[in-house]
């Protein structure tokens, strides 16, 4: 079977600990190279993870002709810059979320990508590849829940490490960018459209200058969504979807323990059911979905228009509505 | 033991089915009379519930000298009118929530009540008398959860009966008034202050002209609250309270099956605990709390200033912020 050969730009933790091992166990992808600004570090991680080639600069990796696609887990402010360089080097691009610093950034990437119609670009919202979320969309679209009226979500963790890029506004840190992007993504996905109106309040960390808390209210006309996200809160994640006839509940909605099954709890009137999903690695599913779009020339599951739409709402939330 | 002798103004369902039986099994209260605009109906309900006296008008009940307090389960637009008449007749007043149609209504009641310093007036937010909520306040105030950053809540049911006063705007119907008042009450209670900023969107029922859905975002400065309430949604109730160090979760937060225990789920870091509360009737606890304030001359658990504060936020939410 033909495989999609990945190179990875940077030795970022999410790549090392989650996405690279997941690509390595995927069905249709391999990781052949990794780059770091420090050659030693690239070599060290390559050895640890069993990656054939390592490079001391991102540019060198992009010149590697055996690499067909890059995965970009760099800090947010570097996403679009390196995504564009990768396209220029003829590589497909799987890039961490959020795709850039703002919607202009995302639009710039789309504009550049149109010069390379044979290359695929996808934002790595991994949760959308999980069968629990695919089933959720199916249930919403089936009408089982009636008309959707409210989507509630929360995504937070506690990290006040000043060296973490999440606490650096210049690198695109803050709660909204790091985890609020999921709350917005999921609401837009459920309603299948952009919100008419947006309101939001943020609390800034006085040391870091990032939003350590953002709560938002999105009006989708026929229904609403409310959410909170935080970088300095008791950790938790949940999504609840309320319709006129039924509701869905997804705990640990976005990240979860890959060794455990995940649950989709449904209430329709007084009837309650639970669907169970076998343990699976959503980063592997994401890699295979991207490989399918590249190798079988299919549209990416998450289009750049969807990505731009998400960044536009992030911008509106950042500006308070 | 001296008991507080109640008369009930109207044969409304919440009184018949929930509050009157609860007062009857309380420790310090009895229900001695009930009034309806129809004498037959009053007599019928009095017989059903074992109430000694019945009256064919509210005025007659207020003239009953053996009655010390009235419980008012009338539709919202009649609350303040009859609360004031009850005060004028020398009765203590326990009145269903929300206290009136708006904050002006609530302020008018407070102004009138100041003419009768020996009479007690309390809004019937029954949930606040439940030990689970008292424990919640204790935990919040103890600092176990750190600083509170987000309070999420939901309260909804499905009722599209055109004859129900909840679907009549002139009687103070709609989701915000009927159940959103709890979401606002609980957020104000947790933060112990009024919100600085309010944003909200409502969806109107085209037939009834009531809000069948309202979602709101409250900014309390150091933290936020988001909520949705609906009269036409899958029924559910929940409250989640997130702090920097821990979180609390209360399912079926406001109304619940009195025969079952209720749970208070707490997470602090990776430690999860569940506190269980024995089955209890919060309407009985409310009656006894009110009796204590009357018979032992103590302040009501819910002051009229608190009630006015809640109505002010309801007004702001109704106006979109």
Number of helices, counting only DSSP H or I runs of 4 residues or more of chain A: 9
Order of helices and strands of chain A: EHEHEHEHEHEHEHEEEEEEEHH
Termini Cα gap of chain A: 49 Å
Largest interface: A-B, 42 and 42 residues
Structural class of chain A: alpha/beta
| Unreliable residue runs of chain A | none
CATH architecture of the largest domain in chain A: 2-Layer Sandwich
In which order are the strands of the major sheet of chain A placed? 8-9-10-7-11-12-13-14
Give the total of beta strands of chain A.
14
What's the structural domain tally of chain A? 2
Q: Give the biggest beta sheet of chain A.
A: 8 strands, mixed
Instruction: Write down the CATH class of the largest domain in chain A.
Output: Alpha Beta
The CATH homologous superfamily of the largest domain in chain A corresponds to Dihydrodipicolinate Reductase, domain 2
The 3D shape of chain A can be described as: globular
Annotated CATH topology of the largest domain in chain A: Dihydrodipicolinate Reductase, domain 2
